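Annotated sample (chain length 164).
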Amino acid sequence: MNAQPSGLFGHQHDPERFASALSHIENKALDSLNHVRKQRRFIHFAVKLCVMVFRPDMLDKFSSLASAMTQLQFILKKSALPSGFEDYGFFLRTHVLVPHYLSNEIDPRLQQATSNRLQCWNHDAAPEYLRTKLTLEMEADEAHIDNEKNTRTFDQVVSKLSFL
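Output written by the structure step:
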């Protein structure tokens, strides 16, 4: 009896749900960023003015920073859906976010979205950002390791381990 394949891309045609997840991630990330900035200003102020800061107070600051990062990690495990269950990011991994078209012109929205790391989405950038295979050098190294592993016999491995 043939079973139906699991819905790997089951939510691909659910843009509202995906937009909700992205909005939730963005809001939580901005909250965390603002919290980090606030704590950084406090620490910078204390260091700059050589103010004595009690160790418990400083530990509380770092604890609250860790808590903000943990909350962000927790919502990513739930695929950032406010009412979602913990799917370890499966929903988000089934969606790829890329610009809709290739262009050699500088795109200010893309620059803003990527913090000026990417100026335009062209034929040079697309394969680099969508790469799913290892680079040729890494593939060659991996093949070399596999060949070396396969050429050794069990006795050679045991004698090498006993020597160490």
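Annotation: The chain is about 60% helix and 0% strand.
Annotation: The CA atoms of residues 108 and 114 lie 10 Å apart.
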